[in-house]
Write a structure and sequence with these properties.
Elements (H helix, E strand, L loop, with lengths): L2 E2 L10 H17 L8 H18 L6 H22 L4 E6 L2 E6 L9 H13 L3 H8 L15 H15 L4 H11 L8 H19 L3 H19 L14 H12 L6 E2 L5 H4 L10
Parallel strand pairs: 1-4
Antiparallel strand pairs: 2-3
Helix pairs in contact: 1-2, 2-3, 3-4, 4-5, 4-10, 5-6, 6-7, 8-9, 8-10
């Protein structure tokens, strides 16, 4: 039986105009990256906002501009780490249908565990295996050099995902460390940890155990918690909540492994989950 987690209706009266402004601003930032590669953090933020915002009017991600926006966000997010880790003076990155030469940046304020996790999820959703592999070779110490404060479970979760993808050792113990770190008794922000960061870990646990029924329960719970978090009054109109990126990414892993996905939701765009657009153009 399919579970349905509906996204509450949101006003769409000025959506087209808002998307046009976002698109223009995103393209301007992207076009300026060759001169100022350190704007990659801003570019990652706005391209992700645009990708999610397109799913307001296109919740299934069934039209080309939506896919194009998701690919751009994925490419920019991967470029953040290509520029931060290159040992050369510059690096070639394909972004928005063009090959661009970006200057090496090294550690920056935006090279954080959060931006890595976003980049990883986007690469998974777009099924970019080479980009996933490159991200999994990003050294964890680099993510500590920006001066920002992240709870240790972020690093444990990244270590878990890198270990899984690269076939490393101690996957189970690393996942346990990540899950334990989201405990409300130790997490700096218990609500965010509990409703947004723990749920994909539980999904991943069910995925690696090949527990189909448990995975679908965890997916439904993840989307319900996502909904609760993003429909709280102070967050209800933020584009960040339009798509549940973390559950979507782990669901993509499961979908591609042959799991039956028995949950439907606007938070989980069907065309992205089903890899309908993959291969549409060179990425």
């Amino acid at each position: 039986m399919v579970s349905i987690i509906p996204r509450p209706p949101l006003p769409t009266g000025n959506a087209e105009e808002g998307l046009a402004v976002l698109q223009e601003n995103a393209q301007e930032l992207i076009d300026g990256l060759e001169e100022r590669s350190t704007r990659l953090g801003d570019a990652q933020s706005i391209t992700l906002t645009l990708a999610k915002s397109r799913c307001l009017l296109d919740p299934r991600a069934s039209i080309f501009p939506t896919w194009d926006a998701w690919v751009n966000a994925m490419q920019v997010s991967s470029a953040v780490f290509a520029a931060a880790t290159t040992t050369e003076d510059h690096v070639q990155c394909r972004i928005a249908h063009k090959d661009r030469t970006l200057q090496a940046t090294g550690p920056q304020w935006y090279v954080t565990p959060g931006s890595w996790i976003t980049a990883f999820y986007l690469a998974v959703v777009c099924r970019e295996r080479d980009r996933i592999t490159a991200l999994c070779h990003v050294p964890l110490p680099l993510l500590r050099e920006n001066g920002s404060r992240f709870d240790e479970y972020h690093y444990a979760w990244i270590d878990t995902l890198q270990t899984y993808w690269l076939g490393g050792q101690d996957l189970g113990s690393k996942l346990v460390a990540a899950v334990d770190g989201t405990d409300p008794a130790v997490a700096t922000d218990p609500e965010t940890a509990g409703k947004l960061l723990y749920p994909p870990m539980e999904m991943f646990h069910r995925f690696i155990r090949e527990d189909h029924a448990g995975f679908n329960r965890a997916l439904a719970n993840a989307l319900q918690w996502h909904k609760e978090y993003w429909t709280e009054e102070s967050r209800a109109f933020q584009a960040s909540g339009l798509v549940a990126l973390a559950p979507l990414a782990i669901a993509c892993f499961a979908h591609d492994a042959g799991f039956p996905i028995e949950v439907e939701s606007e938070y989980l765009p069907a065309a992205l989950l089903g890899r309908n657009w993959c291969g549409e153009f060179p990425t």
